[in-house]
Specification:
The chain has a domain of 157 residues: Roll (Diaminopimelate Epimerase, Chain A, domain 1). The chain is built from 7 helices and 6 strands; from the N terminus they run H-E-H-E-H-E-E-H-H-H-H-E-E. A 6-stranded mixed sheet has the order 1-2-3-4-6-5, sandwiched between helices. A hairpin with a 5-residue loop joins strand 5 and strand 6.
């Protein structure tokens, strides 16, 4: 019996060409590159989100800066009835003042009535505008340093209407500002004064002022628009809308651009040229038909539909009108 002696060998998997320690190291390196690539892919996918975060943060800073720098709306505690000419009794003055407070609060615009004995060196329009802008403390003539924000008006645009009576030359004037300029068109002001002027001519002061307040209240109610801009900073809102639009357009376009992997810039337009030429040998124009639209425009079309404006001494834009009674 023959006896075989020797060492037991651990069975090994067969190796094909190119597989060995070197290839194993290469696989590990490749796996490392793949891992890094995956991390890079995550970073690249985070790019738009990071961009959005930066844009939103910048937008918040811009909004805060603009709103913080915006001038505050006029919020002066001034009497809406100033009877400097002493035309009303105590009870009439009290009732009219309460009505002015109620209408102004409901309509979001100051409705003001002022009576004086004399206009001084100013016209009735100038006096009404200055009184609206500077308040009762306005001097005649105005001196440097007077605060043009010390007067009347509600909201960011300081909306309101002021009715002025001066006894010396029997002058009246209306001054509007802010959103109330468009609410009270020239024609509406004329219609209001057609009803108010007879009371003024007869010396029925309380009736005249109550008629004016009632008419103004109905105009605000019928107009259907907000009389004032409220506390909204419209320039800031416009800027916010613009920036939001840029962000809203940038993010989708960036996402679409990232998907266009097969698109490459072209150095010329040769690929768009037709391989065969088209030549027109004959052309003609044929008249088909004629259509005419005729619109009848009446003589009163559009008359009084707008509001004429002017700039007061404060630099603010006013509407209004004036006359005699």
């Amino acid at each position: 019996m023959n006896r075989v002696t020797g060492q037991r060998r651990r069975p090994q998997a067969p190796q094909s060409a190119g597989i060995g320690p070197a290839r194993t190291a290469a696989n590990r390196a490749g796996a490392g590159r793949q891992t890094r690539g995956a991390r890079d892919g995550i970073v690249r996918r985070q790019g738009p989100l990071a961009g959005m975060f930066v844009l939103v943060t910048g937008l918040a800073l811009v909004i805060g800066g603009v709103l913080g720098a915006a001038p505050a709306a006029a919020a002066n505690d001034l009497p809406l009835l100033v009877d400097g000419a002493d035309l009303l009794t105590s009870s009439e003055e009290r009732a009219l003042a309460e009505r002015l407070d109620a209408v102004s609060a409901e309509r979001g615009a100051d409705v003001v009535i002022v009576t004086v004995q004399s206009l001084g060196a100013r016209t009735s329009t100038e006096f009404a505008d200055d009184y609206f802008d500077y308040g009762p403390s306005a001097t005649d003539p105005l001196v440097p340093g007077e605060d043009p924000n010390a007067g009347y008006g509600q909201g960011y645009d300081r909306s309101g209407i002021l009715f002025l009576i001066s006894l010396e030359a029997r002058d009246w004037a209306i001054s509007t500002r802010g959103g109330s300029i468009s609410v009270f068109s020239d024609r509406l002001q004329a219609d209001i004064m057609d009803e108010v002027r007879p009371y003024l001519s007869d010396g029925q002061w309380a009736a005249a002022f109550n008629e004016f307040v009632g008419r103004a209240d109905r105009v605000y109610a019928t107009d259907g628009r907000s009389a004032s801009g409220g506390s909204i900073n419209w320039p800031a809102l416009a800027l916010i809308t613009l920036i939001a639009g840029v962000i809203g357009g940038f993010l989708p376009v960036t996402a679409w651009k990232a998907k266009l992997k097969s698109v490459r810039p072209a150095a010329d337009a040769a690929r768009y040229l037709a391989t065969s030429e088209v030549s027109l040998t004959h052309s003609r124009d044929d008249f088909i038909n004629q259509h005419t639209v005729v619109t009848d425009i009446s003589a009163s079309y559009g008359v009084g539909g707008g509001s004429s404006t002017h700039v007061g001494s404060s630099g603010a834009t006013h509407g209004g009108s004036s006359g005699k009674f």
